[in-house]
């Protein structure tokens, strides 16, 4: 009997020792800083590498982690929710200190977020939102206001056609189906142009935020839809793919078909400066530094704002020419 009790006590002590040593850095050896502060380990699940925006975002997260002295476990989901769920489960298993992720779509996250909550690992939503009713499942959401971006796109169009009463035929290349930026950029745009019936979205389809799909879908639009006046693409990459399709069909992008995109990555800005795109709504991918700040705070148990919105602007062709030389991404 006594033997059994002492075995239990021993087992308890061992468990205590295991949980109290290290800060849950799992398989990696995390260096301690001089002050005795153990290094924060972050598990980050990225959407993929679908666009120039995403590449710049990944770079920003990786570089900022290094600068902030945060050990980063980075996982690329190749645009698949199931891969992100697997990555998050593996971060939980490895007992990272904080999980950050950019949810590919808005729905279906509650079970895995609950698992993280039960394991007492704080979660930070980066770039994209989830539609979970239970907002205690994550600490904060850092990223752009995509509805606002859609509205800005719509406002430019309204201004551009303010002196005309003719019908304006618009085709729309949507981002990844079910993703926050696709849902919100569509909704914001629609809200603004919906006030005037001369604006008609005559065709709309997803181009999955990629150049290849943007080109393919635009080719189909050009065949099926006569008299396209305007293309609204939810990101630069799809717009750039569409430009190839428009040129391939013997039309002049920026003139025969006016083009509005979102992001303002270098290639997009170049096309804008060259007159092939007419207006770009900026969406900043440089979320790394703010993310690392927030991560350190939530790991320490400090209060953080529930929503941190990125500051952004818009660019006309002239503004793009000026901004291009100093553009970071
Ligand atoms: O606009 C697009 C990327 O979530 C804001 O994802 C991001 C979007 C961005 O693929 O280019």
From TrEMBL:
SUPFAM superfamilies: Periplasmic binding protein-like I
Coiled-coil regions listed in the entry: none
Signal peptide span: 1-17
Locations listed in the record: Cell envelope
GO molecular function annotations of the record: carbohydrate binding
Classification via InterPro entries: Peripla_BP_I, SBP_2_dom
One GO cellular component, as annotated: cell envelope
Keywords for the protein's UniProt record, in alphabetical order: Signal
A Pfam family matched in the record: Peripla_BP_4
PROSITE patterns, per the entry: PROKAR_LIPOPROTEIN
Gene3D superfamilies per UniProt: 3.40.50.2300
Periplasmic binding protein domain ranges (all copies): 44-303
Family (UniProt): Belongs to the bacterial solute-binding protein 2 family.
Protein name per Swiss-Prot or TrEMBL: Monosaccharide ABC transporter substrate-binding protein (CUT2 family)
Organism: Nonomuraea fuscirosea
């Amino acid at each position: 009997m006594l033997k059994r009790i002492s075995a239990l006590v021993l087992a308890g002590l061992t468990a205590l020792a295991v949980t109290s040593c290290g800060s849950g850095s799992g398989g990696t050896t995390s260096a301690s800083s001089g002050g005795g502060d153990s290094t924060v380990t972050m598990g980050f699940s990225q959407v993929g590498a679908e666009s120039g925006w995403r590449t710049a975002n990944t770079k920003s997260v990786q570089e900022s982690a290094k600068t902030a002295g945060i050990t980063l476990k980075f996982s690329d989901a190749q645009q698949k929710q199931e891969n992100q769920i697997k990555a998050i489960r593996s971060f939980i298993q490895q007992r990272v200190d904080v999980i950050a992720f950019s949810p590919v779509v808005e729905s279906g996250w509650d079970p895995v977020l609950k698992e993280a909550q039960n394991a007492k690992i704080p979660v930070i939503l980066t770039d994209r939102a989830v539609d979970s009713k239970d907002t205690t499942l994550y600490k904060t959401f850092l990223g752009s206001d995509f509805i606002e971006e859609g509205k800005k796109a719509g406002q430019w169009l309204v201004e551009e056609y303010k002196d005309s009463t003719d019908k304006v035929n618009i085709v729309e290349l949507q981002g990844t189906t079910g993703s926050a930026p696709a849902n919100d950029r569509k909704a914001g745009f629609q809200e603004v142009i919906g006030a005037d019936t001369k604006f008609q979205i005559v065709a709309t389809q997803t181009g999955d935020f990629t150049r290849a799909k943007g080109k393919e879908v635009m080719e189909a639009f050009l065949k099926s839809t006569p008299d396209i006046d305007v293309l609204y693409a939810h990101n630069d990459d799809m717009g750039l793919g569409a430009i190839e399709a428009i040129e391939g069909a013997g039309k002049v992008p920026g003139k025969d078909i006016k083009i509005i995109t979102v992001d303002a990555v270098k290639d997009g800005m170049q096309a804008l400066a060259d007159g092939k795109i007419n207006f770009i709504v900026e969406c900043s991918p440089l979320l790394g530094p703010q993310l690392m700040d927030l991560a350190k705070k939530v790991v320490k148990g400090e209060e953080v704002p529930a929503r941190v919105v990125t500051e952004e602007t818009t660019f006309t062709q002239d503004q793009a020419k000026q901004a291009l030389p100093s553009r970071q991404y």
